[in-house]
User: What shape does this take?
Amino acid sequence: MKVAAVIIVLLFFLIPMLSTIIVGDGTLQGKLQTFASYSLSLMTTLLCILTIAISTWTLSNDVQRKYILLIVTKPISRYQIVLGKILGIIVIDAILLVVFSCVIYGLTVLIPHITDAPEVQVKQAQDEFFTARAGLTQPEDEREIQRRTIEAYNKLRESGQLPQDMTGERAMAELRSQQRMLGRSVPLNSKRIWRFHNVRVTDPKEQLFVRFKYEVAVTGPDDKVHGLWDVGDIRQFEMPPGSWKTPIEQVSRSDSARKMMEIEIPASVIAEDGFVGVVFYNTLNQSTVIIQDVELLYRAGTFTGNYIRVVMLIGLRLAFLAALGVSTSTWLSFPVAFLLTMSIFLVGMISGFVIESIDSLGIVGNLVYTVSIKPLIWMFPRLDGDYNPTRFIVMGRILSWGFLAQVFGIMVCVKAGVLTLLGIWIFSNREIAKVVV
Amino acid sequence: MAVQRSEYAIETVTLTKTFRDWWGRAKVVAVDKLELKIEYNEIYGLLGPNGSGKTTTLKMLLGLLHPTRGAAFLLGGSGRDARVNKRIGYLPEDSYLYRYLTARETLDFYGRIFGLPARVRRSRIDALLEMVGLTGMANRAVGTYSKGMARRIGLAQALINDPELLILDEPTSGMDPIGTRQIKDLLAQLASRGKTILLCSHLLADVEDVCDRIGILYGGKMRVEGTVESLLQHKDGKQIVTGGISAEALGQIRAIIEREKASCQITSPMDRLEEFFIRTVTAAQEQGLATSGAMSTTKIGDFLKEQAIKPSILDQLVAASSHETPSGPPEVDDKLVETKSIEPQADTDLLDRLAAAGVGHHETEIVAPRKTPQAPEPVDLPAPVKRDILEELIGRSDGDGGRTQIVDPDGGGDTPDA
Assistant: This one.
């Protein structure tokens, strides 16, 4: 398996090289994020390809070269052969994964020490990268948006203003996104409230972060958006100020538009029942402000712990691919099994995109889609989007044990388990010595 | 399903295999209603030209192919049963060994599959490597071996579990004559230890030398089956082998035979090429010439002898397992072992008459000729050649050239060793 040697050498060579040449957006955090993103993706991709290559090669090669004749005539069951192949690959993967993860971890931790970055950037990297934060968002009221969309649509149709070159579906989609933006907009001299429940911080001395992005049509003369924020148990506004149990932090700041921003608040603002309210007042600008992607972040774990879980998530992916590869090679020859497994892997890499695309076509309610394509897509592994391990490290977001257990349950126990059983069944019933031409 | 102690070591019942093409159309009937019955402690030779269904039969026995109809039983069970697999050894038509493992690693790997303890494994691997003459090359990758050397390792792996039943597909293909001879001797020794052997070959000499019973397959059907002796011996013809005798005595013999109204042909016996080759190589080995190939040693039977002398753990295990299941190793039946020897019988009647005619002073043996007279020779090759009757029979010359062979063409047909 020369491909294994090539991949190992490539990784040993490329990962340290990446750590020195990557600059990112010039900030320390940018450099860390870019390095972590590139090196983790590179390692994951190469190990996935290696796993697919070995897993589809090992059993089919034994069959093709007839080594298997001397194995199956020994006192060993065929299911043991299939399981043995899968376990062997998982062990190889585990060793390689641990080695390269340690290299990447070491370099990541080393980067702040070898980079000459200002104090502010080091703090930012500590707060936003070397952490594992949980994020809470307030879901938008989809029913309200739908209601308003239909209302707007009907109004347009009655007045005959529907665009002629658009289908009804397309116009609806356009109106829906308009209404969505409208819901996020805060007109001049008004306010917008976000409510977050069950905010749990391990240590009250920790910090909370309100993350957001401004969108504006026109910015002020200094190219900034001015915001006045209240963060805390805003239900207390109705009570006299002396009886407040938790403080409400008031922040006034100016931020650039179209850029993710974070406001740091002491965690002591969290109400006893875990409630945190965030209020934005649009009083200091000249026009409407749209606020996107508002999220309340808080530290929920350590960087190292999160990194270990991310590596485990990559490991689960490799285990799934090992089972898939060995399972296909129980009945297919090497090149065919390799191409099939590779195709499934690639579809899995874009499965989130595929589902999103189909959903955006507006055929979600279609029965044919629900009974045919959707389960088919479900059978493919989910490897992108929320399941992309790199994202957790780059964004500094926590990968919870619960999520890891869910992936283990669905992708490894159910999907890989079914594939393995299928492979064992095929392998146990096939004529090992049959010559296929 | 418990493995029953069955009447036969190998049994097939209307075993049929039809190979179909992709569309399910029958293309080839490889094996056709085969009824193969092989008893315990028998060496059975399955013969046949290429494509006659030998290998297909073996593969169905071992569960590597599914029979289209009928059934195949090994030691009373299925070839897919792990308990049956524990008691058999299989050498496929090609050795099919992992190329990057060394000989020692290969044997260790298969030993592990049998779950042999490390100590047993080590001692057995050493014995097997020595037996197949590859001790010196034990740490070389098997992929670098010549075909014959790989074959030796293939045979060693088939013996790693000290199997009760050996299934060998072309065991001597690619082997040098010494290796071939060693394997034949090994098979004879295994049989004497009570093993059952199914040998599949188209090298007729190999089969003839070692097998008790042979069957000839053609077109997937059994054409002839029987003991080697019953199939090959001509009861009506006679063959006389003598030491150096005078022309006068020859004349008298010829006269006697002519009185019997039988035709007569007189030649000097020739060495078989096999004997000649083995002598040459043995001489080279004794001079200590270097070789990177397989070393042929005299220690062919060490692996077996060692077990015969002290009951090994394996023997104990086998004994223990025979208590668990009714199927023990078959007992060594001296009678059966004897049936293997195909020494021609001396014709005492004719001898008496020759003695009366005054030609009985020389070493003389009169036997019924066989198409290729060749008897199993005890193998202790580099040892001094034993001048016994058996060797005289196969016409071994040690340089005096004074022996004469008399053949009755009416009875024998072919001239032996010519």
User: Anything to note?
Assistant: Residues 127 and 299 of chain A are 9 Å apart (CA to CA). The two ends of chain A are 25 Å apart (CA to CA).
